[in-house]
Amino acid sequence: MDKRKLGNTDLLVSPVTFGGNVFGWTLDEKKSFEVLDGFIAAGFNFIDTADVYSRWVPGNTGGESETIIGNWMKSRNNRNQIILATKVGSNMDPNGKKCLSKKYILEAVEASLLRLKTDYVDLYQSHYDDLETPVEETLEAYDQLIRAGKIRWIGASNFSAERFKESLETSARLSLPKYQSFQPEYNLYKREGFEKELEQICLDHQVGVINYYSLASGFLTGKYRSEADLGKSQRGSAVKEFMDPRGFRILKALDEVSEQYNSSVASVALAWLMARPSVTSPIASVTSLEQLKNLTKAAALRLDVEVISILDEASAWE
């Protein structure tokens, strides 16, 4: 499987990233191990998680996803085969707030390393912006962790265009570590938020993009065609917002293209993302080995220019 360079790092990542938000939620540890084994066996190597996954599940406290991944890597003795990304800055404490202070980051990374059963993270990401903490303070914390060998590279997620640009400019001005990746919500339905300003910033600064909700919470798999389908999974309620004329127009175009390529709708939706000049490795989650086939097929799918135009037109946001 062809690998892609993430930003200006030495990380060569698979063209699809596994989204670890399902671990400890829709997948228990045994099933998580099975899916992760299949993911690596298929030639993929990039896994993304966060310290806060999956605190939203009743009875969970956060850290469940990292713990499962750590247990899996230890049991398989495969840490050196994995490019591991996690995040900091979301509110692990239900009564707390999103935080990127130096003190918070230095404490949070130790907890993540403990759960992940490793002594370093390949990509450590600011999960959400913290407007109360100066940009340079956050970057100084990352600089300390890089020097200590606890993290290798840094990325950002969910920043505004203005704040992300300020972070990149601060890194250059003060010779501090630079965000090498950006993680936005981005898919065929949700295009404007990234494409309007952020995409060009990423291209101009050679920042790799590892977008989340690549399949719009499952809507772009074609699994949900009416409100009656929303009960098909625990995540079904998140799909209702896409069920409008534009959403169904996108599905119709995906149906047309998937038939032409003898592929699944999900694989085509991911292949469209991988064809974007800005995107390095879209994030997608699966809950079974059968669904994993969609990721494998997507990684091998090369859409021609005419087909990309069909999908572009159906999903146009202007």
- Helix fraction bin: 25-40%
Order of helix and strand elements from N to C terminus: EEEHEHEHEHEHEHHEHHEHH
Task: Calculate the mean pLDDT score and round it.
Answer: 95
Given this structure, which CATH class of the domain at 4-183 is correct? Alpha Beta
The largest sheet is: 8 strands, parallel
Low-confidence stretches: none
Strand portion, in percent?
Answer: 5-15%
Radius of gyration: 19 Å
CATH architecture heading of the domain at 4-183: Alpha-Beta Barrel
What class would the helix/strand composition place it in?
A: alpha/beta
Span between N and C termini? 35 Å
Q: How many strands?
A: 10
CATH homologous superfamily identity of the domain at 4-183 = NADP-dependent oxidoreductase domain
Strands side by side in the biggest sheet: 9-8-7-6-5-4-3-10
